[in-house]
Amino acid sequence: MTAVTATYRLQFRNGMTFDTAIGVVPTLKRLGISHLYASPIFTAVTGSTHGYDVTDFNEIDPALGGREGLDRLVAALKDAGLGLILDIVPNHMAASLENGWWHSVIEWGPASPYAGHFDVNWRERLTLPFLGGTFDDVLAAGDLKVVFNEAHGCLTLAYFDTFYPLTPSSYEIVTAAADEPLLTEVAAIAARATPDDADRMHGEIRRLLAEPEARRSVQAALDRVSANRDLLSTLHDAQPWRLMFWQEASRHLSYRRFFEITGLVGVRVDDAHVFEDAHRLILDLVRSGTVDGLRIDHVDGLADPTGYLARLRERVGPDTWLVVEKILEGDEALPAEWPIAGTTGYEFITSLAETLTDADGAQGLDRAYRDALGTPVSLDDERRAAKTLMATRNFAGEVTRLTDLLFEVAETERPDDMPAETTLQAAIVALVTAFPVYRTYGNAAGMADADRTLLETVATAARGQDPAPDGAALDLAVAALLGDLGEEARETAVRFRTLFQQLTGPVMAKAIEDTLFYRFNRLIAVNEVGGDPDDAFAPASAFHGRMAERVAAQPRGLLGTATHDTKRGEDARARLYALSEAPETWRDAVARWRRHNSNHVVELADGPAPDPNTEWLIYQALAGAFPEDLPTDPAALTALADRFAGYLEKAMREAKARTSWTEVDGAYEQAVQAYAARLLSPDNTGFLSDFTETLKPFVAAGRINSLAQTLIKMTAPGIPDIYQGTERGDFSLVDPDNRRPVDFARLDETLDASLPAWPAEGCPPLGAIKPHLIRTGLSHRHARPDLFTTGAYSPLAVDGARRDHLIAFARTDGRDTAVTLVPRLPLALLRERPDLRDPALWTDTSVRLPDAGRLTDAFSDARASGGSAVSVATLFARYPFAMLTSYAADG
After folding, report:
1. Global pTM?
2. For the CA atoms of 167, 173, 179, 184, what is the dihedral angle to 10 degrees?
């Protein structure tokens, strides 16, 4: 098994197949990658662009090349000395008729052998929220028909091109109304069938209707049946499922979904049998040595993440590298009992944001933002409003289900003093909205002490809300979550606890990441997954503390700076961090731009479009995404405008302020899109000239921030993860923009060239220099893996006037030492001197190096003596960053 020292995330689909990836392997080898980290490769719905909508856990997607293609890729990786990490999706599958398990559940209902594979509330019919209107309206419009589906060999209720299988016991309703002997035979075949031999039934029906004339005759009879609306309604009522308007899903869904996506249904991998069925191929790939490690998607969605991870670890053995997609909020720590290497690294992004932004300047940016909006902004109020919106509207069905369970608990625990259901629901909403993290991890065995303490804190916060929930109802909900109930109510309480824990994460994600982060736009660079805009600014000492903690907590967890889920590219964030250094400059610029483009603001009945908050967002998002060379040629502007339009649609709808995915305000969206398009029109020369000129110092500072975060990632505790394309500069917007094809040929050209010399002003383009920082850093990691994972982390003392402008730390492991030095808050430095190597910037600033003998810079070959204070000017003579190493001779 290849040791994991650096991963490269490759997004399969959208033109990237296994054979295409084989051509990339030599480039990854040159860059210093140890493992290709693949997005989901299992069979997904036809045309899937991401692979998280899996239809078959136990088949490699033929669209990517199938198992043979995967084997060819793995052979190429092994020939190059590289391994493979797979992204797996145990939480959910596609609620698609292409999914054989789901098709069986729809056809047979709770009798299906796969009914227990999915998280369905079988107390009611399975709801299928895929109609474009109410059932009655769709029926009246004639959009429902009974159709023989040749591919599956069954009768279906068709809604346009979607064919929902009729449960076999209902075939007689059709045949009784049709004068067609072949249909009578079809019904007889169905009557003999059982859920376990459904394939035989389908085969017999296909053979019976194999001739075209037979199918035409049957379909003609079915068309006559379809003309009877009352009969179709009766037939629909006889199914174990019911079709419904998609907008009713939030209140009436009978299955657990992934967040708000009704097309993804929760899988019960907490059940041992389901686990085995869902992991058969995955485990085979690990045991055969095809795969070295697994990334577990959305682990917080599982009923019992702790139990799941314990079972998975047992089945894959002690050496398989496991990381989980887990969002750690604030100072939250990973559960110590999880047998994993760590997370996918969102908290590392937060740590970088904390140290690369200016806390003092951010206060000025805050004032500028509030002045631009012309109204006070309370982040706490906005956060609670977003979470309340999610709990009471978007996840109303889940809250209703929890209320029903808590009512059952109350009937057992408090039969003589029954609270009203509305009172219980209000208590549940109060708890959900007060949760500061994604979830707790109680299971049938109970709740850990740390989680009990957290729940008590949450309950206290819930009681302090205005209006406050009923105290008795809140106490009952907390008791149910903790399991502090009588024996008779405990089974129901466990179900309540499980569903509650599976709800708080989606509410947190959709309220904060996908609502608040598009509403509160002070500095959008820090509105990132796992972050908090209020906690985004900290001194360098806080960063050092977090990195020291990583050595103990997850030295082999991923160091991520970009993923397929991040809100913007890592280098776009790095550029926008510099806004915190110059709030007045940004304030004045936005004011000018708003005046210049004011005649393109449209006054609608509910306010201006765009409103001031959206204008502020637009200018920041453009500043982050604008190409490095600041082009004003029509082709480049058109390309950016096309990309930006998709981003802006998502940003407006996710904010849910004046439009949303479920209630689109076309007039508002059209006006905002026209405004943004006008900004990037080649004939808008006055604005474009001002915009690009204003951006120049931020672009220069952003490059320095980018190189700083890159070198930090190469040397911090953990495993560096490179998201595809980010090695040459990443100014992408939110997905799907960040899944655009990567030009690997240009990366090869860059690696063929030498590390460019540093210019007298500014910084080389990121595409020319960033890959060399990565390759150099990864070559050292490959040579000394333990040094950069489990090696001690120590901040270095910096003295002098520029001490706050330097991040300096050492990694030590026995006789091996590596020192990282990078600039911090570079905008102020560049304003004083255009060349960050200028000795005048660092005249009295020195860093005390660890006692490690002679240290050599990996980029300039400069040498320094350990154990002494060394001038930063000396260390930055050739490049304004350094990686000094001193290694013991190889034994």
Report:
1. 0.95
2. 50
